[in-house]
Design goal:
- This protein is of the alpha+beta class.
- It has helices at residues 2-5, 18-38, 65-70, 114-131, 135-182, 189-204, 213-229; strands at residues 7-11, 46-54, 59-62, 79-88, 91-98, 104-110.
- It has 2 domains: 2-133, no CATH class; 140-229, no CATH class.
- Helices cover 57% and strands 19% of the residues.
- It has a 6-stranded antiparallel β-sheet with strand order 1-6-5-4-2-3.
- Helix 2 packs antiparallel against helix 4 (114-131).
- The protein starts with a helix and ends with a helix.
- Mean pLDDT is 76; it is low at 218-230.
Amino acid sequence: MREILNQKKGLGPWLLTEETLTKIDSLMVKAYEDFVELAESSNKNYTKKLTIWFSNGSKVEFKSFREVLMSESFSNQIPEEFEYVIEVGVNKINIEFHTKWLNYFQYYILCEDKDRENNIIYDMKSIYSAEKPKLFFSVASMLRFLSFAFYILLLYGLNSIYNLHYEIPNNKVIKNKAYQILSKDSLQQEDYFELIKYNTIYNFKLYKLIEDDNSKNISEKYGTIYIYGT
């Protein structure tokens, strides 16, 4: 049961407001104070950082969301994801938010004092549940992603079909050319050059170098279908 309580991941669209970010700040400050109080010695690792990735490609570390909200330097930048981490010894909270591909918000909480852990989980669940999108919007978000993936696969499939229709007849022409050359009783130097040429055309798909009227007509025919078909 605890594994379900202390970690959560939900698909979006998540629209975290300034009020929500302030609540997360308060939770993290309180949790950090609890973790430090539980620390038995000063040699434990103390980590408290907020990392935000912006749409312009920059990655910046802050002390809290308040620092970001109060900063004029980042007021016009769009955050795409963040990771908020507090870690003191075995005690840890990790909160993440991503908008790339699938928009999701997740958290993980672990505290050696289970009473304090339950308090932190309760506060985090209150924030999470209040902001969690309705099932309809989550499904709609997933469908938008799947539709994007579908169109990518469709384009890939059409391109593969085109390549097959384009390559097969040309490869047949190349094989016929090679067969005609190899069928000769004796091969001349020019024949070997021809074989090397057609082998190169076959390997690198340089079909425009094939000197054959039929192959050119086939290429133009399938090229026309491909262009108007897409």
